[in-house]
């Protein structure tokens, strides 16, 4: 299998929305601006397609807000298509994102996953990211707090 991170292709919009779980017209419209600028910073986001043997299987989001993060630091988010989950795609996305970060003068990538997401926890560990702690009640949904585990890769 050959994985790569790359900008999206114009014809991949609906597939990218499917991978990201975007169903409503409003959600798709908000994503369209970033999709059209894939591979470039739009505001403080950059989206890259995760490709496996020519098939779009994931979306990698890099976030760097110059008002809240030092130069050389970014946060990562990853969405993997359901059919590609459990096959090493998350680990590969983390490895490729770190390679991208080093080439583009980033010295730190950080990411987190809900404490119950065992697959993503394993992906961080397999990709050699360091566990940095627990973010208590990072998200509140229907009055219930969700703890997230924080990981980072640094030079």
From TrEMBL:
One of its GO terms (cellular component) is cytoplasm. Residues 3-155 form the N-acetyltransferase domain. Pfam families: Acetyltransf_3 (PF13302). GO terms for molecular function: protein N-terminal-serine acetyltransferase activity; protein-N-terminal-alanine acetyltransferase activity. This is Unannotated protein. The lineage of its organism: unclassified sequences, metagenomes, ecological metagenomes.
């Amino acid at each position: 299998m050959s994985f790569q991170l790359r900008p999206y292709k114009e014809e991949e919009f609906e597939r990218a929305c499917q991978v990201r779980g975007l169903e409503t017209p409003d959600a798709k419209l908000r994503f369209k601006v970033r999709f059209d600028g894939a591979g470039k910073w739009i505001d403080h986001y950059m989206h890259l397609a995760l490709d496996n043997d020519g098939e779009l299987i994931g979306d990698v989001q890099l976030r760097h807000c110059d008002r809240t993060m030092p130069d050389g630091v970014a946060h990562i988010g990853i969405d993997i298509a359901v059919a590609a989950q459990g096959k090493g795609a998350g680990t590969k996305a983390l490895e490729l994102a770190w390679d991208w970060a080093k080439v583009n003068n980033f010295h730190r990538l950080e990411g987190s996953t809900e404490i119950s997401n065992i697959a993503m926890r394993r992906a961080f560990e397999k990709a050699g990211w360091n566990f940095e702690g627990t973010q208590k009640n990072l998200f509140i949904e229907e009055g219930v707090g969700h703890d997230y585990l924080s990981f980072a890769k640094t030079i």
